[in-house]
Design a protein that fits this description.
387 residues; alpha/beta; Rossmann fold; formyl-coa transferase, domain 3
Length: 387
Amino acid sequence: MSVEHVLAAPYGTMVLADLGAEVIKLEPPLAGDDSRQFGPFVGDQSGYFISINRNKKSLTLDLKKEKGREIFARLVKKSDIVVENFRPGTMTKLGFDYESLKKIKPDIIYASISGFGHEAAPEYKNMSGYDIIAQATGGIMSITGQPDGPPTRVGSSVGDIFSGLNMAIGILAALRKREKTGEGSRIDIAMMDVIASVLENAIVRYTITGKVPERIGSQHPSIAPFDVFKAKDGWLTMAIGNDSLWKRFCKIAGFENLADDPRFETNDKRSNNYGELKQILTKWTGDRKVSFLIDLLTKAGIPTSPINTVADVIKDPNINYRGMVIDVEQPKIGKVRIANTPLRFSLAPRDAKTEPAPLPGQHTTALLQLLGYTTEEIEELRKEEVI
């Protein structure tokens, strides 16, 4: 059961739903999840919401009302996991913090996502935790962008998405622990922590050298050439990750003189003299078309690729071969194309049916009936706007 909104927790519970979990999504009556108001829209439904809430059931419930809290407590008794991503303290005020839920169901697994954690330094207690805030405080914006440009937010909401993924991993580990010990768990995910954890080698570069990593565009800080290059008619990447690939590249590109050039003969030297090397390579790529360069480099075994737009991705033969874009039959509006789960299992059918994102409160009646509520009681709850 998930008391979730917008992206971080919904993304994590979508991953669990894709893996077969029954996810009951609690939403406020009338308005529903905030993300139902985010575009683009198909009719009166949010494409944003549809894309991250597949395979879930929606139950509308007002947790500020006593009868709503009674329903929530009954749901907890039947649930394995409770997920929430509200500001720390919100669930405590409602009487549904971890310690309170343990009294209802001792082996409950309780997972939270917040900007800075439920256990946070005093300086962060009152800060709000949106994706761009996590990216800023976690450090990734300081190393993203061009050297002469401003700090740049990663184009996708990685603070939310990586937090949702880490939550899902933590829940799976907690389920395994409960199988062995019978004990529940409290999982506390801070988005700032998650961003810090994916800084790759930036932290260790600083702790070892004392030099603060800076924005360097698309190049790699310690591998060269590993970057984006402009061609005559577009852009491409090259990722020459070792000295053997470098010698092979020099041969097919007509740069035999560079293979043994003392400035570039090893990866470390190429990284240290990359400014000079980039000028040479940019002139070479700039005189040639992307298709020619991709063909030449690929045939030689040099890692390369064009820079795909989202439109290119949707049409890409490998994306389509692997079923990464699927149609879901969304209630009231018909087919909507969304990104599929990237998880592939040997025994899972490739054409497994994906359930669409739920309408607000679509499963409220059925779920309350499972809890023992009569039709008359459900109608009364609806009139009182509890559901």
